[in-house]
Amino acid sequence: MPTVHDVNESTESQSQEIDSKYRLIILAAKRSKQLQRGARPRIDIDSTKHKPTRIALEEVVQGRVRFHLKIDGDEKAAEES
């Protein structure tokens, strides 16, 4: 299982649009709730062996989760690469 250090390195190298580890955690938490409510994983992973939080974090790190940034009332669409 990756450590926080591994996640930080892979996050910095693969998803330049996530500007902080806090945004990463918020995105993963929201995606985890979706998975718990029945959403299908967007990556190839055995969902019987991994918890929704782990699947969600991996989806965010791999750039499979779209999100929008809201800055001063304006919405800016942003996608992970």
Overview of the structural elements:
The radius of gyration is 13 Å and the shape is elongated. The two termini are about 25 Å apart. Helix content is about 45%, strand content about 10%. A hairpin with a 2-residue loop joins β1 and β2. The chain has one domain: Eukaryotic RPB6 RNA polymerase subunit (Alpha-Beta Complex). It has about 80 residues and is of the alpha+beta class. α2 packs across α3. The chain contains three helices and two strands; from the N terminus they run αααββ. A two-stranded antiparallel ribbon has the order 1-2.
Topology (elements, then pairings):
Layout lengths: L3 H11 L6 H16 L15 H10 L5 E5 L2 E5 L3
Antiparallel strand pairs: 1-2
Helix pairs in contact: 2-3
Largest sheet: 2 strands, antiparallel
Counting helices, strands and paired strands, the structural category is alpha+beta
Radius of gyration: 13 Å
Q: Runs with pLDDT <50, length 5+?
A: 1-6, 8-16
Strand content: 5-15%
* Discrete helix count: 3
Tell me, what's the shape?
elongated
Under the CATH scheme, the architecture is Alpha-Beta Complex
Strand tally, please? 2
What would CATH call the class?
Alpha Beta
Rounded mean pLDDT is 78
Helix fraction bin = 40-55%
Question: What sequence of helices (H) and strands (E) makes up the elements?
Answer: HHHEE
What does this entry show, briefly?
By secondary structure, the chain is of the alpha+beta class.
Task: Tag the structure with descriptive keywords.
81 residues; alpha+beta; elongated; two-stranded antiparallel ribbon; 3 helices; Eukaryotic RPB6 RNA polymerase subunit; disordered N terminus
